């Protein structure tokens, strides 16, 4: 499919997104009982924040390279 705006497409051609390291291994574990402990919750929350940071880094890199609109 051709670009609707050929000049904008040519400007993006050949540009790569900056590398973003893989997300670290999850540190949270399955809750041992019916209700998770504070430590289990905190580990899951830390994993969530780490993944959120990675997703934001990927989005920023894509915006910088022109693959994603600002």
Provide a descriptive summary of the structure in words.
The protein has 70 residues and is mainly alpha-helical. 50% of the residues lie in helices and 0% in strands. It has two helices and no strands. The protein is rod-shaped and about 60 Å long. The model has no long low-confidence stretch (mean pLDDT 84).
Would you spell out the secondary-structure blueprint of this structure?
Blueprint: H1 6-12, H2 38-65
Helix count equals 2
Beta-strand portion reads under 5%
N-C termini distance: 23 Å
* Percent helix: 40-55%
Q: Provide the succession of SSEs.
A: HH
Q: If you compute it from the alpha carbons, what radius of gyration comes out, rounded to the nearest whole angstrom?
A: 19 Å
Query: Low-confidence stretches at least 5 residues in length (pLDDT < 50)?
Result: none
**Oligomerization state:** single chain
So what's the overall shape?
rod-shaped
Largest sheet: none
Mean pLDDT, rounded to whole units? Answer: 84
Overall strand count: 0
Spell out the key features of this protein:
single chain, 70 residues, mainly alpha, 2 helices, 0% strand, rod-shaped
Summarize, please:
The protein has 2 helices and no strands. With 70 residues, the chain is an all-alpha fold.
């Amino acid at each position: 499919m051709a670009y609707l705006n050929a000049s904008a497409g040519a400007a993006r051609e050949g540009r790569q997104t900056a590398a973003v390291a893989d997300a670290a291994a999850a540190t949270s574990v399955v809750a041992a009982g019916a209700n998770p402990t504070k430590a289990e919750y905190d580990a899951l929350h830390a994993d969530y924040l780490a993944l959120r940071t990675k997703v934001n880094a990927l989005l920023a890199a894509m915006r910088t390279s022109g693959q994603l609109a600002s």
